[in-house]
């Protein structure tokens, strides 16, 4: 009987409180309380009071102080509502709702959050131990074997992350390393550093291919020339699409050609690279299919800003979101071809292009960026190698970005699905705080500008250094 009354009381209470919560709220917000305190509001108070009585009385044997308070509030609210005593009804109606949320909902949420954080912390702390007990296959192990002819091809390999990755593969022992870039000078300098890092110089080779990945025809011709002119060069076992650019600014102050240029390089450059190289990878003979690599692997480099939109990057974020979508689509499509696809989300990287990027970056974006880590290309390459070795689909450069990755993971493979399930409450809570802070920065800086105290970028064309002599967006082949 006690259980039945508790269930009945709590069910009626939940419904009545949900429907009638607008009554006390309107009363409090009205300057003429007598006009708002209608019979409907009084009726709601009566029913709510009855529910408190039933719910409180059914739980009294538990001797919990909270149930006694339930009982007392229900009694007083019932009486005050019935007789229309506004001085008691208004505060008690609000107090009863607050008490319900604090005593029922809040503890459950807090407990779930605490349990989630504790379990996540335990899992994170024990992760190295679990990894040692159950080691996974190193997907890049074959790149380190003496005499191997493993081929890694990296676009944007003349500088930054691409060059750092090429150096890491040279130190690992990869047989063939191909780097692509528009700048022959950068490629020549990078090749010298890559060659210096090789552990078996007589067995390893570095190939440079100067080309523009935004031009499909030129890229296809350059790749054909590479394979036709190089003896015993296998189709790539790993392709890393690292070529990219960013030219931040305010939406209405940025030349539209910047949007075209960034989409051309960041997204269509990635598409072109995959279209040119995938036929060679898929055509790899069955006898050469690797147990851990399959016919090959595509690593599409997105960005931390491929996980969230940010002020000042309206021209960059969409391109990196597109790369993420491409990776997710190709992951499914190429599964039957034994081509693995993954996506990498690096943070701010201390490179020459990042310094150029800071010249046009809005003040709001600079403030937000200062809260994020700025890593070296070598650190970014190390993070990429960890994800590649483990065979993860999504991977980032730091723990904070893993929270964002979990938030957008969707239906894609997760490196630790059980652990990340317990992250969700903390992830969403952190997301609320982060978004509030982003909005706060934008509003505060806007207020400064309106008062004449803040800095603002001049409304002029800042795109000249990025455009060709014709001043036109590149043609799509």
Report on this model:
By secondary structure, the chain is an alpha/beta fold. It has 2 domains: 2-105; 141-466, Rossmann fold (3-Layer(aba) Sandwich), CATH 3.40.50.720. It is 58% helix and 9% strand. The chain has helices at 2-20, 22-29, 33-36, 39-59, 65-83, 86-133, 160-172, 184-197, 216-229, 256-282, 317-333, 352-360, 363-369, 377-390, 399-408, 417-421, 424-451, and strands at 151-155, 176-181, 205-210, 238-241, 296-301, 339-345, 348-349, 374-375, 394-396. A 7-stranded parallel sheet has the order 3-2-1-4-5-6-9, sandwiched between helices. The radius of gyration is 31 Å and the shape is globular.
Cα Rg: 31 Å
Biggest pleated-sheet summary = 7 strands, parallel
- Tell me the structural class: alpha/beta
Share of residues in helices: 55-70%
Strand proportion, as a percent range, falls in 5-15%
Can you tell me the overall shape?
A: globular
Give the strand line-up of the largest sheet: 3-2-1-4-5-6-9
SSE series? HHHHHHEHEHEHEHEHEEHHEHEHHH
The CATH class assignment of the largest domain is Alpha Beta
Keywords: Membrane, Transmembrane, Transmembrane helix
Transmembrane segments: 39-57, 69-94, 100-133
Domain Ketoreductase: 150-342
Protein name: 3-ketodihydrosphingosine reductase
Task: Summarize the entry for a quick read.
The chain is of the alpha/beta class.
């Amino acid at each position: 009987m006690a259980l039945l009354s508790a269930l009945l009381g709590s069910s009626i209470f939940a419904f009545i409180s949900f429907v009638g919560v607008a009554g006390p709220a309107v009363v409090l917000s009205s300057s003429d309380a007598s006009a708002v305190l209608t019979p409907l509001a009084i009726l709601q108070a009566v029913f709510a009071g009855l529910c408190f009585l039933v719910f409180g009385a059914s739980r009294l044997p538990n001797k919990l102080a909270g149930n006694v308070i339930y009982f007392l509030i229900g009694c007083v609210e019932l009486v005050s509502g019935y007789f229309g005593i506004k001085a008691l009804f208004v505060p008690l109606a609000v107090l009863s709702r607050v008490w319900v949320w604090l005593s029922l909902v809040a503890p459950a949420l807090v407990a779930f959050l605490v349990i989630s954080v504790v379990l996540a912390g335990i899992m994170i702390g024990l992760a190295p131990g679990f990894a040692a007990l159950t080691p996974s296959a190193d997907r890049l192990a074959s790149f380190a074997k003496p005499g191997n002819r493993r081929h890694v091809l990296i676009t944007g390999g003349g500088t930054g992350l691409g060059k750092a990755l090429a150096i890491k593969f040279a130190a690992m022992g990869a047989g063939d390393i191909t780097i692509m870039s528009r700048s022959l000078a950068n490629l020549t300098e990078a090749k010298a550093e890559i060659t210096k890092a090789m552990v078996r110089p007589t067995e390893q080779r570095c190939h440079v291919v100067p080309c523009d990945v935004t031009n499909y025809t030129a890229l296809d011709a350059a790749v054909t020339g590479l394979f036709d002119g190089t003896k015993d060069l296998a189709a790539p076992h790993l392709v890393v699409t690292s070529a990219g650019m960013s030219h931040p600014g305010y939406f209405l102050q940025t030349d539209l050609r910047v949007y075209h240029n960034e989409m051309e390089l960041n997204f269509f450059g990635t598409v072109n690279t995959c279209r040119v190289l995938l036929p060679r990878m898929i055509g790899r003979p069955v006898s050469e299919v690797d147990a851990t690599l399959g016919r090959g692997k595509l690593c599409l480099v997105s960005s931390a800003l491929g996980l969230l939109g940010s002020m000042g990057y309206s021209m960059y974020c969409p391109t990196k979101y597109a790369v993420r979508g491409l990776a997710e689509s190709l992951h499914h499509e190429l599964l039957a071809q034994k081509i693995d696809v993954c996506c990498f989300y690096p943070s701010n990287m201390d490179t020459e292009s990042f310094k150029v990027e800071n010249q046009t970056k809005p003040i709001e974006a600079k403030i937000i960026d200062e809260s994020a880590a700025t890593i070296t290309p070598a650190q970014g390459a190390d993070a990429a190698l960890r994800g590649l070795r483990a065979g993860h689909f999504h991977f980032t450069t730091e723990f904070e970005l893993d929270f964002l990755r979990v938030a957008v993971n969707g239906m894609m493979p997760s490196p630790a699905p059980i652990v990340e399930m317990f992250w969700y409450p903390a992830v969403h809570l952190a997301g609320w705080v982060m978004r509030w802070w982003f909005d706060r920065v934008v509003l505060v800086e806007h207020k400064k500008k309106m008062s004449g105290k803040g800095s603002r970028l001049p409304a002029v064309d800042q795109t000249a250094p990025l455009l060709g002599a014709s001043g036109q967006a590149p043609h799509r082949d």
